[in-house]
């Protein structure tokens, strides 16, 4: 028997073993499991390499470790709120939101997401306005600045942010910057060096340690900034000129970001500390100065995280619960729409129950296969009676869901398998009529710049487009 035959036989055995492992040992979604089995069987060598990089589950050991004191404080508060809901003594600022306390309960049980009601919220949909506000808040920082982004560029906006952080570091403010190694792969070493030399603490999430980064598929997609424990930013904007609509093939960049003042900032701070302590050897200890929040209003809010380290898909479960509670309408904005079967069924049932479902997606693809898969699933819901709108004024990157003018979610999670199962994400779930009305107003403004995809137009798709959609749908579980 020749060497060639031995190698082929060995590859065959390895592929069979992997296929068996995927099916019987790994807790993957059946659709994803079969997608990887087909990859292994049809492209043995390359499929094996792709699986090592993109398909392996993340380690079962706890990635984010809590300091005992902070864990006890959170657990105590969470249990008190759970008990209050179960005993029907849970108090809300707005009695008309009581019907949504089941959603609050879900996040308490599913994610230890403390509910707070003393928050003030500013909504930014334009990059210039968001970053001007952020830079102004940074300039007033007294104690610490914690910054976390998925994508950071070394361009004009990136330089402005770096200079602002450097100035504060030289003033004695503790500045920490955390970025995702994959998302910020174009970030120049000179940029990082300049920050570090000025005293800014900089870390990368899941950095490459070998030629091949075996954690490359698990990305920290969160965007958070916490200033003095009092002001928090959360939403969809990354750091780069394209998010200002500059030097971008997409033109204007439409996103949604929140500026928060209130106790919800403590939850954002906790999330940053957990992420930082995973990435850095210089741990952040529990300090009262990190949690000195101030009241900003009367808006109810929960900060909910999800990631591949968790048994549950916390943000997706929150989306489904919101959809299930809808009686009048559901407005969704997302750059990628690749719902799994559970979310797709929830939306289809809502439509067939008479709920007005409007979904807005961009008209331009930044990832072609994801875009064609999005079009396929939009067409599927279009057939059930949902309304699909194509945003035409640049690129729509907002991740927003609004239900019945009472509850909403804004954050980093797209409606796709990657956000639900592979990425580390964070969303704000909002319980307030006034702030939700503001989000509805932004949605209505975007409708002016959108065209409606009717069933008649969708059915006129060419054979080529239908083929692209079908192929993209088949590989959507591993996109």
From TrEMBL:
Residues 216-243, 392-419 form the PLD phosphodiesterase domain. Its main location: membrane. It is an enzyme of class 2 (transferase). Its EC number is 2.7.8.-. It is found in: Cell membrane. PROSITE patterns: PLD. The keyword DNA-binding does not apply. The active site is at residues 221, 223, 228, 397, 399, 404. It catalyses: 2 a 1,2-diacyl-sn-glycero-3-phospho-(1'-sn-glycerol) = a cardiolipin + glycerol. CDD domains: PLDc_CLS_1 (cd09110), PLDc_CLS_2 (cd09112). Catalyzes the reversible phosphatidyl group transfer from one phosphatidylglycerol molecule to another to form cardiolipin (CL) (diphosphatidylglycerol) and glycerol. HAMAP family: Cardiolipin_synth_Cls (MF_01916). Belongs to the phospholipase D family. Cardiolipin synthase subfamily. This is Cardiolipin synthase. It comes from Oceanobacillus jeddahense.
């Amino acid at each position: 028997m020749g060497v060639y035959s031995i190698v082929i036989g060995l590859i065959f055995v390895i592929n069979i073993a992997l296929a068996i492992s995927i099916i019987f040992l790994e807790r993957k979604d059946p659709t994803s499991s079969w997608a990887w089995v087909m990859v292994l069987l049809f492209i043995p060598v390359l499929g094996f390499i792709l699986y090592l990089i993109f398909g392996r589950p993340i380690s079962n050991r706890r990635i984010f470790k809590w300091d005992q004191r902070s864990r006890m404080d959170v657990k105590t508060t969470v249990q008190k709120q759970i008990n209050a809901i179960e005993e029907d003594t849970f108090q809300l600022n707005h009695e008309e939101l009581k019907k949504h306390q089941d959603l609050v309960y879900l996040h308490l049980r599913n994610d230890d997401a403390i509910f707070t009601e003393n928050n003030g919220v500013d909504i930014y949909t334009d990059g210039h306005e968001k970053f001007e506000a952020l830079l102004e808040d940074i300039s007033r920082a007294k104690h610490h600045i914690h910054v976390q982004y998925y994508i950071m560029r070394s361009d004009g906006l990136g330089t402005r942010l770096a200079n602002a952080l450097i100035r504060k570091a030289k003033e004695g403010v503790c500045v920490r910057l955390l970025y995702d190694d994959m998302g910020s792969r174009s970030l120049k070493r000179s940029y990082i060096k300049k920050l570090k030399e000025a005293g800014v603490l900089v870390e990368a999430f899941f950095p490459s340690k070998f030629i091949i980064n075996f954690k490359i598929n698990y990305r920290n997609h969160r965007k958070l900034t916490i200033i003095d424990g009092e002001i928090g930013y959360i939403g969809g904007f990354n750091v780069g000129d394209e998010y200002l609509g500059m030097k971008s093939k997409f033109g204007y960049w439409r996103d949604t970001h929140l500026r928060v003042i209130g106790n919800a900032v403590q939850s954002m701070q906790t999330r940053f500390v957990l992420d930082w302590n995973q990435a850095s050897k210089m741990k952040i200890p529990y300090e009262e100065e990190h949690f000195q929040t101030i009241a900003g209003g009367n808006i109810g809010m929960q900060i909910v995280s999800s990631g591949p380290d968790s048994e549950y898909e916390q943000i997706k479960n929150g989306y489904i619960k919101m959809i299930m509670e809808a009686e009048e309408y559901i407005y969704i904005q997302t750059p990628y729409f690749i719902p799994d079967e559970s979310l797709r069924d929830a939306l289809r049932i809502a439509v067939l129950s008479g709920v007005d479902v409007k979904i807005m997606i961009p008209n331009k693809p930044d990832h072609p296969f994801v875009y064609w898969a999005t079009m396929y699933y939009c067409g599927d819901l279009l057939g059930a009676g949902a309304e699909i709108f194509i945003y035409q004024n640049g690129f729509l990157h907002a991740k927003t869901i609004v239900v019945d003018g009472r509850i909403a979610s804004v954050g980093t999670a797209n409606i796709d398998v990657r956000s639900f199962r592979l990425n580390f994400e964070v969303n704000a779930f909002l319980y307030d009529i006034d702030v939700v009305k503001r989000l509805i107003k932004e949605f209505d403004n975007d409708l002016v710049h959108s065209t409606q995809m009717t069933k008649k137009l969708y059915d006129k798709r060419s054979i080529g487009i239908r083929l692209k959609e079908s192929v993209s749908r088949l590989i959507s579980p591993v996109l």
